[in-house]
Design brief:
The chain is an alpha+beta fold. The protein contains two helices and five strands, in the order αβαββββ. The longest helix is centred in the middle third of the chain and has 12 residues. It starts with a helix and ends in a 23-residue tail after the last strand.
């Protein structure tokens, strides 16, 4: 599941470590419900840097929303049968207002 994978990545971001500047999403074209679920998750968590970009690959005929869950589409690039939608979190939303990533306990050193 895509959202579960994002949650696993979030555990890798500890306090003080920078989140991701670019996140590329390329779900199977038929999994249309995954697009909104993943974008909503990214908009409401700290995995994406405050000025980060989410790039979503999809069918040219699949219409992604202009705005979704706090992410604003800033560009749409169509090529052949595919398209790329570029999303950015509006500057008014700061990462401090988002939930902190949950961290897993550090492994004990061996030996």
């Amino acid at each position: 599941d895509a959202v579960r994978a994002l949650e696993t990545l979030e555990t890798k971001i500890h306090t003080g470590e920078a989140p991701y500047d670019y996140i590329f999403i390329d779900p199977p074209y038929a999994a249309t419900e995954d697009y909104s679920r993943v974008l909503q998750h990214l908009a409401s968590h700290r995995l994406l840097a405050p000025d980060g970009i989410v790039i979503v690959e999809h069918r040219k005929t699949f219409h992604t929303p202009e705005q979704l869950a706090g992410l604003q589409r800033v560009r749409l690039l169509r090529q052949g049968d595919a398209a790329l939608s570029f999303y950015r979190r509006p500057a008014a939303v700061s990462s401090e207002s988002l939930p902190a990533p949950t961290s897993s306990p550090e492994p004990e050193p061996a030996g």
